């Protein structure tokens, strides 16, 4: 990966942090602690433009920065959960899209990412997060099915729609250059 590409991915991570704070809002019908933010969109764009692991890297950087600036009300647990969710989404969507870079595969990748992320976060919440937050055992399953699973499906569906709408417009800024005259002249 070139220095230019690393800088672009770092900028996407920083943009993800900015979006987490500037555009976060609660969704109706969900508990207050479940808020939507579009901070995963830069990682999805990186996953499509550069590759799935670039999307995961953007998610990792975004969450490390968030933790270091003390930006998560839920501390290390919140940024870890955000990384697992966003990293899963970027990895799955990016892997599917990398098989054949078409609009159809982008849609399939995003749908596969939403389903996989929702299921992964269901397991993470069931076995780790909800018990860790002190949710009584008899309330874990109702909280999971009534709030957590639908929220993740809605959150990542919204991010997918925005990513799909924006990707073609911004991909040329992020993709690795096909031709670099400076490199060509050195040969």
UniProtKB/TrEMBL annotation:
Record membrane topology: Multi-pass membrane protein
Localization of this protein: Cell membrane
Transmembrane parts of this sequence: 76-99, 106-128, 148-167
An MF annotation (GO) of this entry: riboflavin transmembrane transporter activity
InterPro entries: ECF_trnsprt_substrate-spec, RibU
Pfam families the record matches: ECF_trnsprt
Name this polypeptide is given: Riboflavin transporter
Organism name: Thermanaerosceptrum fracticalcis
Lineage of the species this protein comes from: Bacteria, Bacillati, Bacillota, Clostridia, Eubacteriales
């Amino acid at each position: 990966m070139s220095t230019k590409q690393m800088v672009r991915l770092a900028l996407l991570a920083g943009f993800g942090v900015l979006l987490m704070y500037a555009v976060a809002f609660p969704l109706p019908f969900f508990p207050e602690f479940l808020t939507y933010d579009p901070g995963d969109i830069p990682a999805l764009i990186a996953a499509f433009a550069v590759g799935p692991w670039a999307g995961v890297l953007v998610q990792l950087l975004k969450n490390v920065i968030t933790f270091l600036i003390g930006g998560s009300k839920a501390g290390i647990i919140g940024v870890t959960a955000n990384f697992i969710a966003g990293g899963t989404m970027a990895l799955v969507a990016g892997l599917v899209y990398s098989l054949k870079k078409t609009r159809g595969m982008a849609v399939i990748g995003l749908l596969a990412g939403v389903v996989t992320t929702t299921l992964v976060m269901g397991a993470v919440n069931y076995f780790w997060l909800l018990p860790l937050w002190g949710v009584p055992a008899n309330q874990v399953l109702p909280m999971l099915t009534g709030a957590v699973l639908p929220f993740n499906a809605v959150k990542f569906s919204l991010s997918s729609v925005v990513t799909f709408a924006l990707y073609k417009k911004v991909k040329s800024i992020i993709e690795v250059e096909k031709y670099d005259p400076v490199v060509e002249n050195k040969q």
